[in-house]
Amino acid sequence: MPEKLNGTYRPLAAFLADLPQRIGVAPQALLVISGHWEAPDFAVMTHPQPPMLYDYYGFPPHTYQVQYPAPGSPALAARVGALIAAAGLATHADAQRGFDHGTFTPLAVMYPQADVPVVQLSLRDDFDPAAHIALGRALAPLRDEGVLIIGSGLSYHNLRAMGAMGREPSRQFDDWLCKALGADPQARASHLLQWEVAPAARFAHPREEHLLPLMVAVGAAFDEPCERVYHEDDFMGAISVSSFRFGTLA
């Protein structure tokens, strides 16, 4: 576990560090859908050695020195693009994009050796839940090819209310999200398509870019049960957050 992690993030770091063991199978590659990349259609990173993208400001100097030198995978990127196109969804290759912090932050803890190829995939900037669930369904065959699909976001993301103001709204939305994901697959998808009517939904997600990666994961494991694998009631001192897992690698 990185020495610079303080007590605030230590439970999350411990969970991330333990994930490879929980998964139990070494993935051939990682496909990350990050809440920090939006494009007019589904953009696929094709760089064979992705650079770092420090897409934040005002943080300590050491956070701009993080390196995560995992290789990209042009072959996986091509496969991802082909699956998306075959599903009738618009996509394009991006040869310049680097790893943003929605990718390199969790992966530096999960796979610190940076020896697993990584491809990053954007959200679509219209934020259509149905399109992102459809994207996941298109990507489902990758799970039988040894690719671990990771939706990187946050189940509560209101940066203006990360303290006591967010305590009750985050609990309300987290409770709803857990119940919605625990429903049978068809009902689960229906709930997510109507996520805005959930308790405190727009308080929890003024913009839904951190929720949509979950939609992709749900689509990719559409018929499989969901397990909540991480939960805190006092993240950042007040906030309820959860992470979920769908199925296993084949």
What descriptors fit this protein?
250 residues; alpha/beta; 3-stranded parallel beta sheet; two-stranded parallel sheet; globular
Report on the structure:
- This protein is an alpha/beta fold and 250 residues long.
- The chain has one domain (10-246): LigB-like (Protocatechuate 4,5-dioxygenase, Chain B, 3-Layer(aba) Sandwich), CATH 3.40.830.10.
- 34% of the residues lie in helices and 20% in strands.
- It has eight helices and seven strands, in the order αββαβαβαβααααββ.
- It has helices at residues 10-23, 74-86, 101-110, 129-139, 167-181, 185-193, 201-204, 212-220; strands at 29-39, 42-45, 91-94, 118-124, 147-152, 226-235, 239-246.
- It has a three-stranded parallel sheet, with helices on both faces.
- Strand 6 and strand 7 (239-246) form a beta hairpin.
- Helix 1 crosses helix 3.
- The chain is globular and about 45 Å long.
- The mean pLDDT is 93.
CATH topology: the name is Protocatechuate 4,5-dioxygenase, Chain B
SS summary, helix count: 8
Mean pLDDT: 93
Q: Mind summarizing the main beta sheet?
A: 3 strands, parallel
Global shape: globular
Derived from helix and strand composition plus strand pairing, the structural class reads alpha/beta
Strand content: 15-25%
Q: CATH architecture, please? A: 3-Layer(aba) Sandwich
Number of strands: 7
Task: Specify Rg, calculated over alpha carbons.
Answer: 17 Å
**Ranges with pLDDT <50 over ≥5 residues?**
none
Spatial order of strands in the largest sheet = 4-1-5
Total domains, how many? 1
Secondary-structure element sequence?
A: HEEHEHEHEHHHHEE
Helix content: 25-40%
Let me know the CATH homologous superfamily: LigB-like
The CATH class:
Alpha Beta
Distance between the termini: 28 Å
